Amino acid sequence: MVSDTPLTSSSQPEATHPFRVANFRAYWVSRLSMTLAQYAMLLIIGWQTYNIARDGGMSVAAASGQLALIGLLQFAPLFVLTPFVGLAADKFDRRSLGRLTVVLQLICSAALAWATWHNAITLPILFAVAVLLGVARAFSGPALSALAPNLVPRKILPNAIALSSISWQVGMIVGPFIGGYTFSVLPSLPYIAASVLFGVAIVALSLIGKVPQPPLRKGQHPIGQMLDGIRYVRHNKMVLGAITLDLFAVFLAGATALFPVYARDILEVGETGLAQLAMAPAAGAALTAAWFSFRPLENNVGPKMLWAVFVFGLATIVFGLSTSMPLSLAMLFIVGAADMFSVYIRQSLIQLHTPDDKRGRVSSVSLLTISASNEFGDFFSGSLAFLLGPVAAVVTGGAGAIITVALWSRLFPVLRTTKTFDPPDEIVLKRTESKTQEA
User: Which of 92, 130, 149, 323 is a plausible cystine mate for 73, CB 3.0–4.6 Å?
Assistant: First the structure.
C-alpha cells in the first residue's frame, strides 16, 4: 500500500491550519511579496514605455506598438523555456531555484530604479528587462507551484491552495496601487519598493527548511511529455473546448496592455488613474473568487461559462468606447469578474475531466495557453492598436471574444450540454483502477 504520509518538512505534521506550519508561512509571505513587486513593476514598465515613446514624438498608434513589443518580449522566454522549466523544478532544489528567480527580478528592479533616478531610462533598457522578467517568471512558476504541496499535510492542502490564491489576488490588486501612487510621488520609487519586496521574498524563501523532494523519474523527454498532453487535449473535446475558449477570448479581448494609452491620452487620468484601471479587473476577479469559495456552482456550468465569456467581451467593448473614468472602472470590474467566473469553471472542468496520470501534462498545456492569451495577447492588442488605433483595437477584440463564444458553442456542443462538474464514467473508472493498482 502506498503511504499517505505527506512529503513535508513541517515539525507539526498534525497542524490543522496552513499558517500553523512555519514553512508555509514563509512561503506565503514570499509569494505575496513577490506578487506585489511584480505587478507594481510591470505597471510602471508599461507606463514608462508608452510615455517615452510619446514624448519622443511617436503617435498614439506607434507608441501602442512599443507596448506590443513589451508583451512579445515577456512571452518569448515563457514559450521557449516551457518544456524545460518543469524538468528543472523536478531536478533541482525548488527553494534554491525560486530564490535565484527572485534575485534576477531584484536585479531588474534595482537597475530600473537606478536608471529612472538618473533620468537614464530608455526603451532598450525596458525591453531588456522585459526579457529577463520573462525568463525569471518561466522558472519561478513551476518551481514555487511544485514546492507548495510539500509544505503542509495533505489533509489541509486545499486550505493552503486557497490561501496561496488569496496572496496572488491581493498582489494583483495592491501591486498596481503601489506602482501608480508611488510613481506620482517619485518616478523611481515603485522600483525601489519592488526591490525591497523582492528582498523580503528572498529572505522568506530562505527561511523554508529542508523539503523532501521526490526523485526524478527517468523516462520520457519533457518535450515528449508535453506532446502527450497536447495529444490528450486534442482528443478530449471538453478539455480542448474549455482551454481554447479561454485562449482565444482573452487573446483577442485583452485590453490591459493598452491601459497606459487610456490613462494618458483617452481618459487623461495620469499614473494614479492608471493604477485604478489595473486594480479594477483584479478587484472584480477577487470578489468573484471569494463568492465561489462560499457558494460554488453546481448546475449548468457549461452554458454559464459561455455566458461569462460573452459578458467579458461585451464589457470590453463598452470599456473601449468609454471616455468616462467611472464607467471605465465599472466595465473593467465586470471584465475581471466575468473572466474569473469562466476561469473557475474552466479549471474545474479540466481538472475533473482529466485522468490523474495525465493531469500534470495537461496542466502544462493549459499554463502555456494562459501565457499565450496574456503576454502574447498583449502583443496582439498593441499591434492591433498600432494598425487601427487603441479604441478600435479594444472594441474589435471584445467583438472577437463574442464571436468566439458563438463559434465555440457550435464547434464544441459539449460545452453547451455540460450541466455539472461530474467527470465522465470512464475517467472515474480509470481513477478507481489506478488506486486499486497502487494498493
Answer: 130
Sign, CA torsion 413/415/417/422: positive
Which stretches of the chain score pLDDT less than 70?
1-15, 82-83, 85-93, 142, 145-146, 148-149, 154, 156-159, 161-162, 211-230, 233, 293, 351-368, 370-373, 421-439
Per-residue pLDDT, 14: 61
- Residue 100 C-alpha cell reads as 535565484
Closest by alpha carbon to 338, among 375, 373, 291?
291
**pLDDT at res. 214:** 54
Burial of residue 185 (CB within 10 Å: 0-12, 13-18, 19+) is exposed
Asked if 70 and 258 count as a contact pair (C-beta separation under 8 A), the reply is no
Joined grid coordinates for residue 125: 533598457
Residues whose CB is less than 8 angstroms from the CB of residue 326 and which lie 6 or more positions away in sequence, other chains included:
none
Largest CA distance in the chain: 70
- Residues 260 and 308 grouped into a single domain: yes
What is the predicted pLDDT for the residue at 4?
A: 40
Residue type, 22: A
355 located within any domain:
yes
Residue in 118, 120, 95, 113 with CA at minimum distance from that of residue 40: 113
What is the number of domains present in the chain? 2
Written as nine digits, the cell of 67 is 507596448
Tell me: do 200 and 272 sit in the same domain. no
CA 306 to chain centre: 21
Give the three cell numbers for residue 399.
467583438
Same domain, 240 and 198: no
Determine the Cα–Cα distance for residues 317 and 402; give it in Å rounded to an integer: 10
Q: What is the pTM of this model?
A: 0.80
The rounded Cα 322 to chain-centroid distance in angstroms is 26
Q: Based on the fold, state whether residues 151 and 230 are members of the same structural domain.
A: no
Tell me the DSSP string of 172-221.
HHHHHHHHHHHHHH-TTHHHHHHHHHHHHHHHHHHTS-----PPPPPSS-
Residue 41 within a domain: yes
Helix (H, G, I), strand (E, B) or coil at 345: helix
Domain that holds residue 203: 15-214
Is residue 249 within 8 A of residue 376, CB to CB? The reply is no
How far, in Å, CA of 43 to CA of 101, rounded?
20
**Cβ atoms of 334 and 311 closer than 8 Å:** yes
**Quick check: 361 and 225 in contact, CB under 8 A?**
yes
| Cell numbers standing for residue 20 | 500553523
Same domain assignment for residues 272 and 366: yes
